[in-house]
Q: What sequence folds into this?
């Protein structure tokens, strides 16, 4: 080893001087061949000092470059490869933003048409500056609220269940190793006893997400597009490229509302000049094209958004999500589409909050935490046992949010397997939820 290292040092230094002999060059060629075959031995860092190592590197690297040899491992850099899976994910991510980009282009074009072509080039040109100014003020107020709601709907991330709903490492390993479904359910039931879950699958099993490996809270569902479980998931909207759920459902409703306001404003103000372009001698080829096309586009969007907005107002009044409207949540007493309905007023406040001054602004005011939801089962029990408490609440005039009960209370509803008498006794032990009547 030592001799090989010495020859390596002499060969490198021999190359660096003009007096290199033919024998030394043959020796260098031999050592290079052995190095490529993995049999040659060069001086290592232990055999060489810092000065010798730097000299060896300075002499060896240029020689390899001249002869077209492979560079030393220290000089090689691994280029990241674009695997088919990464390429597919990149294409999916790009395609998901195409609808949002389309809406953004339409909005920008409508803004240009209304402000420039209509107000500045058409209305102001007819010496109606005051009318144009009023149109611009009203238009920009609706435009700001519309864009604000749209922005919040797109960029508010959906809320996922907290770590309490994930299985511990030991429970997860036990669950994965166990092949018997009944034993797996026993594991989930044991964990669910400490969680606020009241709903179950259609076969009366614990709602468990195999992909996220967690017990689903009430009204929580797994989104295949976002690849995560979303609290109070309503649907995944491609026009905002985001899941509409507990964190942004109010923003989504306001987005639909201000979209309607925006379309109504554009349609009504453009209609006058839409008629003039067809019935009078008012001619402006460029403005005429933009104004006519804007009228048809605004009318089309108004009709489509109106039906969607009315449908979601109905869902809010019933306290349902889009998923629950098609597949009723299953409670201990069976499926019930109105299981979470508390009355129109309470349902509305659960989404928009108690403070009316914030209802029309895209500011988060929804009640609750996305995990605990009062049910009709609780409300029925409250009417029996909580009359005095409600009278005291009304007399004091205080308003309270939906209170959160202890986590272990859910076992009286979800995990009860005895007779109806056992279920009833479990309900009696449940702490009633205080809700303003």
A:
């Amino acid at each position: 080893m030592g001799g090989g290292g010495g020859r390596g040092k002499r060969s490198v230094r021999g190359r660096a001087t003009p007096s290199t002999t033919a024998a030394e060059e043959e020796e260098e060629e031999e050592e290079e061949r052995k190095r490529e075959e993995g049999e040659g031995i060069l001086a290592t860092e232990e055999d060489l000092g810092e000065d010798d190592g730097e000299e060896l590197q300075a002499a060896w690297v240029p020689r390899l470059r001249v002869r077209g040899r492979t560079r030393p491992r220290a000089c090689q850099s691994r280029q990241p490869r674009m695997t088919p899976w990464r390429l597919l994910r990149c294409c999916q991510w790009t395609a998901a933003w195409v609808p949002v980009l389309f809406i953004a282009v339409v909005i920008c074009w409508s803004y240009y048409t209304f402000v420039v072509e209509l107000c500045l080039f058409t209305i102001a040109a007819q010496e109606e500056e005051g009318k144009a100014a009023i149109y611009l003020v009203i238009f920009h107020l609706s435009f700001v609220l519309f864009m604000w709601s749209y922005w919040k709907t797109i960029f508010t991330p959906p809320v996922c269940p907290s770590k309490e709903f994930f299985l511990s490492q030991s429970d997860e390993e036990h669950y994965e190793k166990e092949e018997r479904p009944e034993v797996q359910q026993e594991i989930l039931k044991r964990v669910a006893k400490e969680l606020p879950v009241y709903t179950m699958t259609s076969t009366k099993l614990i709602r468990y997400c195999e992909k996220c490996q967690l017990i689903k809270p009430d009204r929580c569902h797994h989104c295949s597009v976002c690849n995560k479980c979303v609290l109070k998931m309503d649907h995944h909207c491609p026009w905002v490229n985001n899941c509409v759920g507990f964190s942004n459902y109010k923003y989504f409703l306001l987005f639909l509302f201000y979209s309607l306001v925006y379309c109504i404003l554009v349609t009504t103000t453009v209609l006058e000049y839409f008629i003039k372009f067809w019935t009078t001698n008012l001619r402006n080829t460029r403005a005429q094209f933009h104004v006519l096309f804007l009228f048809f586009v605004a009318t089309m969007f108004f009709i489509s958004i109106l039906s969607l907005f009315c449908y979601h107002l109905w869902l809010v009044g019933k306290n349902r999500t889009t998923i629950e409207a098609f597949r009723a949540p299953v409670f201990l007493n069976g499926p019930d589409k109105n299981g979470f309905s508390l009355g129109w007023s309470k349902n509305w406040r659960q989404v928009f909050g108690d403070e009316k001054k914030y209802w029309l602004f895209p500011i988060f005011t929804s009640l609750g935490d996305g995990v605990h939801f009062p049910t009709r089962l609780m409300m029925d029990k409250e009417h029996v046992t909580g009359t005095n408490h409600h009278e005291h609440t009304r007399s004091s005039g205080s308003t309270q949010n939906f209170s959160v009960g202890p986590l272990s209370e859910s076992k009286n509803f979800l995990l009860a397997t005895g007779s109806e008498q056992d279920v009833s006794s479990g309900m009696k032990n449940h702490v009633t939820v205080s809700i303003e009547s």
About this structure: The longest strand covers residues 221-223. Residues 1-20, 39-77, 382-437 have pLDDT under 50 and may be disordered.
